[in-house]
Amino acid sequence: MAIRSTIMDTNSFRAEDAEALDLRTRELTGRREAVLGASYRLFYRRPVHLVRGEGAYLWDADGRRYLDAYNNVASLGHCHPAVVAAVTEQMQQLNTHTRYLHERILDYTDELLTTMPPGLDKAMYMCTGSEANDLAIRVAKAYSGGEGMIATTEAYHGTSELTSGVSPALGAGQPIAPTTRLVPAPDAYRLGAPGSAALEAAGRDGVDVGRWFADRVRAAIAGMEADGIKLAGFIADSIFSSDGVLPGPAGCLAEAVEVVHRAGGIVIADEVQPGFGRTGDAFWGFRRHGVVPDVVTLGKPMGNGIPVSGLVAKADVLAAFSDRVPYFNTFGGNPVSMAAAQAVLTTIREEGLQEHSRVVGRELLAELRGLAAAHPSVGDVRGAGLFIGFELVADAELRTPDRDLALAVLEELRERGVLTSVAGPHGNVLKLRPPLAFRTTDIDQLVSALDASLTALGA
Protein backbone atom coordinates (compact mmCIF):
# COMPACT_ATOMS: atom_id res chain seq x y z
CA MET A 1 0.00 0.00 0.00
CA ALA A 2 1.42 3.37 -1.01
CA ILE A 3 1.84 6.03 1.66
CA ARG A 4 -1.16 8.33 1.37
CA SER A 5 -1.45 10.05 4.73
CA THR A 6 1.54 11.03 6.83
CA ILE A 7 -0.40 10.83 10.09
CA MET A 8 -2.34 7.66 9.27
CA ASP A 9 -0.27 5.50 6.95
CA THR A 10 3.35 6.11 7.91
CA ASN A 11 3.59 4.06 11.10
CA SER A 12 0.85 1.54 10.40
CA PHE A 13 0.32 -2.20 10.34
CA ARG A 14 -0.09 -3.69 6.88
CA ALA A 15 -1.72 -6.94 5.81
CA GLU A 16 1.59 -8.31 4.56
CA ASP A 17 2.91 -8.16 8.15
CA ALA A 18 0.24 -10.58 9.41
CA GLU A 19 2.23 -13.76 8.78
CA ALA A 20 4.87 -12.70 11.32
CA LEU A 21 2.32 -12.27 14.12
CA ASP A 22 1.58 -14.65 16.95
CA LEU A 23 -1.73 -16.49 16.68
CA ARG A 24 -3.69 -14.34 19.15
CA THR A 25 -2.60 -11.06 17.53
CA ARG A 26 -3.31 -12.43 14.07
CA GLU A 27 -6.80 -13.43 15.18
CA LEU A 28 -7.52 -9.94 16.53
CA THR A 29 -6.26 -8.17 13.41
CA GLY A 30 -8.34 -10.59 11.33
CA ARG A 31 -11.47 -9.80 13.34
CA ARG A 32 -10.88 -6.06 12.87
CA GLU A 33 -10.49 -6.52 9.14
CA ALA A 34 -13.71 -8.54 9.00
CA VAL A 35 -16.00 -6.13 10.86
CA LEU A 36 -14.46 -2.64 10.90
CA GLY A 37 -14.23 -0.19 8.02
CA ALA A 38 -11.00 -0.33 6.06
CA SER A 39 -10.18 3.31 6.90
CA TYR A 40 -8.96 2.32 10.36
CA ARG A 41 -5.24 1.90 11.03
CA LEU A 42 -3.13 0.14 13.69
CA PHE A 43 0.29 1.25 14.87
CA TYR A 44 3.35 -0.98 14.32
CA ARG A 45 4.19 -3.99 12.17
CA ARG A 46 3.38 -6.05 15.25
CA PRO A 47 0.38 -4.26 16.77
CA VAL A 48 0.23 -3.76 20.53
CA HIS A 49 -2.73 -5.32 22.37
CA LEU A 50 -3.26 -2.99 25.33
CA VAL A 51 -5.41 -3.88 28.32
CA ARG A 52 -4.50 -1.44 31.11
CA GLY A 53 -3.02 2.00 31.71
CA GLU A 54 -1.83 4.04 34.67
CA GLY A 55 0.02 7.36 34.62
CA ALA A 56 2.61 7.33 31.83
CA TYR A 57 2.51 3.55 31.46
CA LEU A 58 0.52 0.98 29.51
CA TRP A 59 0.35 -2.81 29.84
CA ASP A 60 -0.33 -5.32 27.09
CA ALA A 61 -2.26 -8.59 27.28
CA ASP A 62 0.92 -10.46 28.25
CA GLY A 63 1.56 -8.14 31.20
CA ARG A 64 4.44 -6.25 29.60
CA ARG A 65 4.75 -2.61 30.64
CA TYR A 66 5.37 0.17 28.10
CA LEU A 67 6.34 3.80 28.56
CA ASP A 68 3.82 5.90 26.64
CA ALA A 69 5.80 8.67 24.93
CA TYR A 70 3.04 9.69 22.54
CA ASN A 71 -0.38 10.06 24.12
CA ASN A 72 -1.97 13.43 24.82
CA VAL A 73 -5.52 12.07 24.89
CA ALA A 74 -4.97 10.89 28.46
CA SER A 75 -2.97 14.08 28.98
CA LEU A 76 -2.81 13.95 32.79
CA GLY A 77 -1.94 10.27 32.61
CA HIS A 78 -3.92 7.11 31.97
CA CYS A 79 -6.85 6.48 34.32
CA HIS A 80 -6.13 9.53 36.45
CA PRO A 81 -8.02 8.98 39.74
CA ALA A 82 -9.39 12.56 39.87
CA VAL A 83 -11.04 12.18 36.47
CA VAL A 84 -12.31 8.67 37.23
CA ALA A 85 -13.87 9.89 40.50
CA ALA A 86 -15.44 13.00 38.94
CA VAL A 87 -16.98 11.10 36.05
CA THR A 88 -18.27 8.30 38.29
CA GLU A 89 -19.88 10.71 40.75
CA GLN A 90 -21.62 12.74 38.04
CA MET A 91 -22.75 9.66 36.11
CA GLN A 92 -24.48 8.43 39.27
CA GLN A 93 -26.45 11.71 39.45
CA LEU A 94 -27.36 12.92 35.96
CA ASN A 95 -26.22 13.08 32.37
CA THR A 96 -28.18 15.07 29.82
CA HIS A 97 -27.74 17.75 27.17
CA THR A 98 -27.37 21.54 27.26
CA ARG A 99 -31.03 22.45 26.75
CA TYR A 100 -31.62 22.06 30.46
CA LEU A 101 -30.02 24.24 33.11
CA HIS A 102 -27.05 22.78 34.94
CA GLU A 103 -24.23 24.37 36.96
CA ARG A 104 -21.37 22.22 35.71
CA ILE A 105 -21.10 23.80 32.26
CA LEU A 106 -21.23 27.29 33.77
CA ASP A 107 -18.75 26.62 36.58
CA TYR A 108 -16.31 25.05 34.14
CA THR A 109 -16.64 27.90 31.65
CA ASP A 110 -16.01 30.49 34.35
CA GLU A 111 -12.75 28.76 35.25
CA LEU A 112 -11.71 28.04 31.66
CA LEU A 113 -12.07 31.69 30.69
CA THR A 114 -9.63 32.72 33.45
CA THR A 115 -6.90 30.90 31.48
CA MET A 116 -7.57 32.95 28.33
CA PRO A 117 -6.40 36.45 27.40
CA PRO A 118 -8.94 39.25 27.95
CA GLY A 119 -11.45 39.44 25.14
CA LEU A 120 -11.79 35.70 24.63
CA ASP A 121 -14.97 35.49 26.64
CA LYS A 122 -17.56 33.18 25.05
CA ALA A 123 -17.50 29.38 24.94
CA MET A 124 -19.32 26.57 23.15
CA TYR A 125 -18.89 22.82 23.57
CA MET A 126 -18.74 19.73 21.37
CA CYS A 127 -17.34 16.20 21.64
CA THR A 128 -14.30 16.17 19.33
CA GLY A 129 -11.61 18.46 18.04
CA SER A 130 -12.95 17.97 14.53
CA GLU A 131 -16.31 19.37 15.62
CA ALA A 132 -14.65 22.31 17.35
CA ASN A 133 -12.60 23.21 14.29
CA ASP A 134 -15.59 22.68 12.02
CA LEU A 135 -17.58 25.22 14.02
CA ALA A 136 -14.59 27.59 14.13
CA ILE A 137 -14.40 27.59 10.33
CA ARG A 138 -18.14 28.28 10.12
CA VAL A 139 -17.65 31.20 12.53
CA ALA A 140 -14.75 32.52 10.45
CA LYS A 141 -16.86 32.50 7.31
CA ALA A 142 -19.82 34.15 9.03
CA TYR A 143 -17.71 36.91 10.58
CA SER A 144 -15.57 37.73 7.55
CA GLY A 145 -18.07 37.13 4.80
CA GLY A 146 -15.33 35.18 3.04
CA GLU A 147 -14.72 31.54 2.15
CA GLY A 148 -10.93 31.29 1.93
CA MET A 149 -8.95 29.47 4.60
CA ILE A 150 -5.17 29.30 5.05
CA ALA A 151 -3.47 26.28 6.66
CA THR A 152 0.01 24.77 6.58
CA THR A 153 1.12 22.15 4.08
CA GLU A 154 1.04 19.19 6.48
CA ALA A 155 -1.66 20.40 8.88
CA TYR A 156 -4.27 18.21 10.51
CA HIS A 157 -7.40 19.86 11.90
CA GLY A 158 -10.06 17.15 11.72
CA THR A 159 -12.07 14.68 9.70
CA SER A 160 -15.35 16.46 8.93
CA GLU A 161 -16.03 17.82 5.45
CA LEU A 162 -14.91 21.33 6.43
CA THR A 163 -11.91 20.33 8.53
CA SER A 164 -10.58 17.73 6.11
CA GLY A 165 -10.57 20.57 3.59
CA VAL A 166 -7.82 22.25 5.64
CA SER A 167 -6.04 19.01 6.62
CA PRO A 168 -3.51 17.99 3.96
CA ALA A 169 -1.95 15.46 6.37
CA LEU A 170 -4.95 13.22 5.67
CA GLY A 171 -3.56 12.58 2.20
CA ALA A 172 -4.80 12.72 -1.35
CA GLY A 173 -7.85 10.61 -0.59
CA GLN A 174 -9.42 13.64 1.12
CA PRO A 175 -8.82 16.61 -1.19
CA ILE A 176 -8.14 20.10 0.08
CA ALA A 177 -11.06 22.50 -0.38
CA PRO A 178 -10.77 24.66 -3.51
CA THR A 179 -10.98 27.77 -1.32
CA THR A 180 -8.08 26.64 0.91
CA ARG A 181 -4.54 27.86 0.35
CA LEU A 182 -1.56 26.09 1.94
CA VAL A 183 1.61 27.69 3.24
CA PRO A 184 4.81 25.96 4.39
CA ALA A 185 5.21 25.74 8.15
CA PRO A 186 7.97 27.77 9.84
CA ASP A 187 10.62 25.02 9.91
CA ALA A 188 13.68 26.79 11.31
CA TYR A 189 15.85 23.68 10.88
CA ARG A 190 15.31 23.43 7.13
CA LEU A 191 15.21 27.16 6.54
CA GLY A 192 18.71 27.30 8.00
CA ALA A 193 20.09 24.46 5.88
CA PRO A 194 23.19 25.27 3.80
CA GLY A 195 22.09 26.17 0.30
CA SER A 196 18.45 26.79 1.19
CA ALA A 197 16.87 29.60 -0.80
CA ALA A 198 15.69 31.27 2.41
CA LEU A 199 19.18 31.30 3.91
CA GLU A 200 20.78 32.58 0.72
CA ALA A 201 18.22 35.38 0.52
CA ALA A 202 18.72 36.30 4.18
CA GLY A 203 22.48 36.48 3.97
CA ARG A 204 24.74 36.44 6.97
CA ASP A 205 22.04 37.70 9.35
CA GLY A 206 20.23 34.38 8.99
CA VAL A 207 16.55 33.72 8.39
CA ASP A 208 13.97 35.67 10.37
CA VAL A 209 11.52 32.76 10.72
CA GLY A 210 8.58 34.96 11.70
CA ARG A 211 9.10 37.36 8.79
CA TRP A 212 9.57 34.45 6.37
CA PHE A 213 6.33 32.82 7.53
CA ALA A 214 4.35 36.07 7.43
CA ASP A 215 5.53 36.61 3.84
CA ARG A 216 4.11 33.21 2.87
CA VAL A 217 0.77 34.02 4.50
CA ARG A 218 0.76 37.40 2.73
CA ALA A 219 1.41 35.72 -0.61
CA ALA A 220 -1.38 33.18 0.00
CA ILE A 221 -3.85 36.00 0.67
CA ALA A 222 -2.76 37.79 -2.50
CA GLY A 223 -3.23 34.57 -4.46
CA MET A 224 -6.73 34.17 -3.05
CA GLU A 225 -7.64 37.70 -4.04
CA ALA A 226 -6.33 37.09 -7.56
CA ASP A 227 -8.65 34.06 -7.74
CA GLY A 228 -11.64 36.09 -6.55
CA ILE A 229 -11.72 34.46 -3.10
CA LYS A 230 -12.24 36.54 0.04
CA LEU A 231 -10.20 35.54 3.09
CA ALA A 232 -12.14 34.00 5.98
CA GLY A 233 -9.31 32.95 8.27
CA PHE A 234 -6.05 31.28 9.13
CA ILE A 235 -5.95 28.09 11.23
CA ALA A 236 -2.85 26.67 12.88
CA ASP A 237 -1.71 24.65 15.84
CA SER A 238 1.05 26.71 17.38
CA ILE A 239 3.59 23.90 17.59
CA PHE A 240 2.83 22.69 14.04
CA SER A 241 2.66 19.14 15.28
CA SER A 242 1.73 17.34 12.07
CA ASP A 243 4.19 19.49 10.13
CA GLY A 244 6.99 17.92 12.16
CA VAL A 245 6.77 19.48 15.68
CA LEU A 246 7.99 23.01 14.95
CA PRO A 247 7.84 25.21 18.06
CA GLY A 248 9.79 27.98 16.30
CA PRO A 249 11.32 30.90 18.15
CA ALA A 250 8.87 32.29 20.71
CA GLY A 251 6.91 35.10 19.06
CA CYS A 252 7.41 33.95 15.48
CA LEU A 253 3.68 33.86 14.71
CA ALA A 254 3.01 37.48 15.66
CA GLU A 255 3.63 39.04 12.26
CA ALA A 256 1.55 36.44 10.43
CA VAL A 257 -1.35 37.09 12.80
CA GLU A 258 -1.14 40.80 11.99
CA VAL A 259 -1.15 40.05 8.27
CA VAL A 260 -4.34 37.98 8.59
CA HIS A 261 -6.11 40.62 10.67
CA ARG A 262 -5.18 43.42 8.28
CA ALA A 263 -6.69 41.38 5.45
CA GLY A 264 -10.00 41.02 7.32
CA GLY A 265 -9.61 37.39 8.33
CA ILE A 266 -9.73 35.79 11.74
CA VAL A 267 -7.11 33.65 13.45
CA ILE A 268 -8.08 30.22 14.78
CA ALA A 269 -5.66 28.73 17.30
CA ASP A 270 -6.10 24.95 17.25
CA GLU A 271 -5.02 24.04 20.78
CA VAL A 272 -6.03 20.38 20.61
CA GLN A 273 -2.37 19.35 20.72
CA PRO A 274 -0.34 22.23 22.28
CA GLY A 275 -2.92 23.33 24.87
CA PHE A 276 -3.53 22.67 28.57
CA GLY A 277 0.04 23.32 29.72
CA ARG A 278 1.63 20.92 27.24
CA THR A 279 4.26 23.37 25.98
CA GLY A 280 5.31 24.43 29.47
CA ASP A 281 6.03 28.12 28.98
CA ALA A 282 2.33 28.97 28.83
CA PHE A 283 -1.01 27.30 29.46
CA TRP A 284 -1.90 27.66 25.78
CA GLY A 285 0.52 27.14 22.94
CA PHE A 286 -0.41 30.39 21.20
CA ARG A 287 0.64 32.40 24.26
CA ARG A 288 4.28 31.40 23.65
CA HIS A 289 4.04 33.67 20.65
CA GLY A 290 2.44 36.64 22.39
CA VAL A 291 -0.61 36.63 20.13
CA VAL A 292 -4.33 36.77 20.81
CA PRO A 293 -6.35 34.67 18.35
CA ASP A 294 -10.01 35.32 17.61
CA VAL A 295 -11.08 31.72 18.21
CA VAL A 296 -9.40 28.98 20.25
CA THR A 297 -10.36 25.33 19.74
CA LEU A 298 -9.89 22.63 22.36
CA GLY A 299 -10.06 18.86 22.19
CA LYS A 300 -8.38 15.61 23.21
CA PRO A 301 -6.53 16.54 26.45
CA MET A 302 -9.54 18.52 27.71
CA GLY A 303 -11.23 15.45 29.24
CA ASN A 304 -8.28 13.07 29.70
CA GLY A 305 -9.95 10.43 27.55
CA ILE A 306 -13.59 11.46 27.92
CA PRO A 307 -14.86 12.84 24.57
CA VAL A 308 -15.24 16.57 25.08
CA SER A 309 -14.11 19.58 23.08
CA GLY A 310 -14.74 23.28 23.01
CA LEU A 311 -14.42 26.61 21.32
CA VAL A 312 -13.60 29.92 23.01
CA ALA A 313 -14.03 33.10 21.00
CA LYS A 314 -14.22 36.86 21.11
CA ALA A 315 -17.85 37.77 21.67
CA ASP A 316 -18.23 39.89 18.53
CA VAL A 317 -16.60 37.25 16.35
CA LEU A 318 -18.82 34.46 17.66
CA ALA A 319 -21.92 36.67 17.46
CA ALA A 320 -21.67 36.87 13.67
CA PHE A 321 -22.54 33.16 13.67
CA SER A 322 -24.37 32.50 16.94
CA ASP A 323 -26.78 35.45 16.70
CA ARG A 324 -28.07 34.06 13.41
CA VAL A 325 -27.67 30.29 13.61
CA PRO A 326 -28.99 28.05 16.43
CA TYR A 327 -26.34 25.45 17.32
CA PHE A 328 -26.95 22.24 19.23
CA ASN A 329 -24.62 19.35 19.95
CA THR A 330 -26.44 16.58 21.81
CA PHE A 331 -23.50 15.43 23.92
CA GLY A 332 -21.42 18.60 23.81
CA GLY A 333 -21.20 20.12 27.28
CA ASN A 334 -23.07 17.30 29.04
CA PRO A 335 -22.56 17.15 32.83
CA VAL A 336 -20.36 14.04 32.77
CA SER A 337 -18.00 15.49 30.16
CA MET A 338 -17.91 18.78 32.05
CA ALA A 339 -17.05 16.89 35.24
CA ALA A 340 -14.10 15.29 33.45
CA ALA A 341 -12.99 18.63 32.00
CA GLN A 342 -13.22 20.31 35.40
CA ALA A 343 -11.15 17.56 36.99
CA VAL A 344 -8.48 18.02 34.32
CA LEU A 345 -8.31 21.78 34.82
CA THR A 346 -8.22 21.46 38.61
CA THR A 347 -5.53 18.77 38.51
CA ILE A 348 -3.29 20.78 36.17
CA ARG A 349 -3.42 23.67 38.62
CA GLU A 350 -3.22 21.74 41.88
CA GLU A 351 -0.37 19.50 40.69
CA GLY A 352 1.50 22.31 38.94
CA LEU A 353 1.56 20.35 35.69
CA GLN A 354 2.31 23.30 33.42
CA GLU A 355 5.50 24.02 35.37
CA HIS A 356 6.17 20.29 35.52
CA SER A 357 5.94 20.17 31.74
CA ARG A 358 8.35 23.07 31.41
CA VAL A 359 10.95 21.70 33.84
CA VAL A 360 10.83 18.02 32.90
CA GLY A 361 10.57 18.89 29.21
CA ARG A 362 13.67 21.07 29.42
CA GLU A 363 15.60 18.25 31.09
CA LEU A 364 14.39 15.72 28.52
CA LEU A 365 15.32 18.05 25.67
CA ALA A 366 18.82 18.46 27.07
CA GLU A 367 19.29 14.69 27.39
CA LEU A 368 18.04 14.10 23.87
CA ARG A 369 20.38 16.72 22.48
CA GLY A 370 23.23 15.02 24.29
CA LEU A 371 22.19 11.76 22.68
CA ALA A 372 22.06 13.44 19.27
CA ALA A 373 25.71 14.40 19.56
CA ALA A 374 26.61 10.69 19.59
CA HIS A 375 24.46 9.72 16.58
CA PRO A 376 25.04 11.40 13.19
CA SER A 377 21.59 10.34 12.02
CA VAL A 378 19.92 12.76 14.43
CA GLY A 379 19.55 16.00 12.53
CA ASP A 380 17.62 18.12 15.00
CA VAL A 381 15.99 17.96 18.42
CA ARG A 382 13.46 20.69 19.16
CA GLY A 383 10.47 21.24 21.35
CA ALA A 384 8.61 23.12 24.04
CA GLY A 385 7.66 21.53 27.33
CA LEU A 386 6.70 17.88 26.95
CA PHE A 387 6.31 18.15 23.17
CA ILE A 388 9.50 17.29 21.31
CA GLY A 389 10.42 16.52 17.72
CA PHE A 390 13.41 14.20 17.16
CA GLU A 391 14.37 14.43 13.49
CA LEU A 392 16.28 11.66 11.73
CA VAL A 393 18.31 12.30 8.57
CA ALA A 394 20.36 10.31 6.08
CA ASP A 395 22.88 13.14 5.67
CA ALA A 396 23.45 15.58 8.53
CA GLU A 397 24.99 18.27 6.33
CA LEU A 398 22.32 18.15 3.64
CA ARG A 399 19.59 17.46 6.21
CA THR A 400 18.13 14.71 4.02
CA PRO A 401 15.01 13.22 5.69
CA ASP A 402 15.24 9.50 6.53
CA ARG A 403 11.75 8.06 6.88
CA ASP A 404 12.91 4.44 6.68
CA LEU A 405 15.24 4.95 9.62
CA ALA A 406 12.51 6.68 11.63
CA LEU A 407 10.15 3.74 11.07
CA ALA A 408 12.86 1.25 11.98
CA VAL A 409 13.58 3.19 15.17
CA LEU A 410 9.89 3.10 16.09
CA GLU A 411 9.86 -0.68 15.80
CA GLU A 412 13.05 -0.95 17.87
CA LEU A 413 11.56 1.32 20.53
CA ARG A 414 8.42 -0.78 20.65
CA GLU A 415 10.53 -3.88 21.32
CA ARG A 416 12.29 -1.97 24.13
CA GLY A 417 9.02 -0.97 25.79
CA VAL A 418 8.60 2.60 24.50
CA LEU A 419 5.64 3.70 22.36
CA THR A 420 5.61 6.75 20.09
CA SER A 421 5.02 7.67 16.44
CA VAL A 422 6.20 9.98 13.66
CA ALA A 423 5.21 13.32 12.16
CA GLY A 424 6.23 15.70 9.40
CA PRO A 425 5.82 15.64 5.63
CA HIS A 426 8.59 13.05 5.26
CA GLY A 427 7.53 10.91 8.24
CA ASN A 428 11.05 11.19 9.68
CA VAL A 429 10.38 13.07 12.94
CA LEU A 430 9.73 11.09 16.11
CA LYS A 431 6.87 12.79 17.93
CA LEU A 432 7.72 12.59 21.63
CA ARG A 433 4.65 13.76 23.54
CA PRO A 434 4.16 11.72 26.71
CA PRO A 435 1.34 12.28 29.20
CA LEU A 436 2.02 14.98 31.77
CA ALA A 437 2.50 12.17 34.28
CA PHE A 438 5.90 11.58 32.63
CA ARG A 439 8.58 12.14 35.31
CA THR A 440 12.29 12.84 35.43
CA THR A 441 12.74 9.19 36.41
CA ASP A 442 11.25 8.19 33.03
CA ILE A 443 13.81 10.16 31.04
CA ASP A 444 16.47 7.50 31.36
CA GLN A 445 14.21 4.77 29.97
CA LEU A 446 13.24 6.87 26.95
CA VAL A 447 16.74 8.14 26.18
CA SER A 448 18.38 4.75 26.80
CA ALA A 449 15.85 3.02 24.52
CA LEU A 450 16.49 5.59 21.79
CA ASP A 451 20.26 5.20 22.19
CA ALA A 452 20.03 1.40 22.00
CA SER A 453 17.69 1.54 19.02
CA LEU A 454 19.91 3.88 17.01
CA THR A 455 22.99 1.82 17.93
CA ALA A 456 21.31 -1.42 16.88
CA LEU A 457 20.50 0.16 13.50
CA GLY A 458 24.03 1.51 13.05
CA ALA A 459 22.73 5.06 13.10
Automatic annotation (TrEMBL):
GO molecular function, one term: transaminase activity
Nucleus listed as a keyword: no
Record's keyword annotation contains Transferase: yes
InterPro entries named among the record's database cross-references: Aminotrans_3 (IPR005814), Aminotrans_3_PPA_site (IPR049704), PyrdxlP-dep_Trfase (IPR015424), PyrdxlP-dep_Trfase_major (IPR015421), PyrdxlP-dep_Trfase_small (IPR015422)
Highest taxon, organism lineage: Bacteria
Keyword terms: Aminotransferase, Pyridoxal phosphate, Transferase
PROSITE patterns (UniProt xref): AA_TRANSFER_CLASS_3
Family note: Belongs to the class-III pyridoxal-phosphate-dependent aminotransferase family.
Name of this chain's protein: Aspartate aminotransferase family protein
Protein's organism: Myceligenerans indicum
Taxonomic path: Bacteria, Bacillati, Actinomycetota, Actinomycetes, Micrococcales
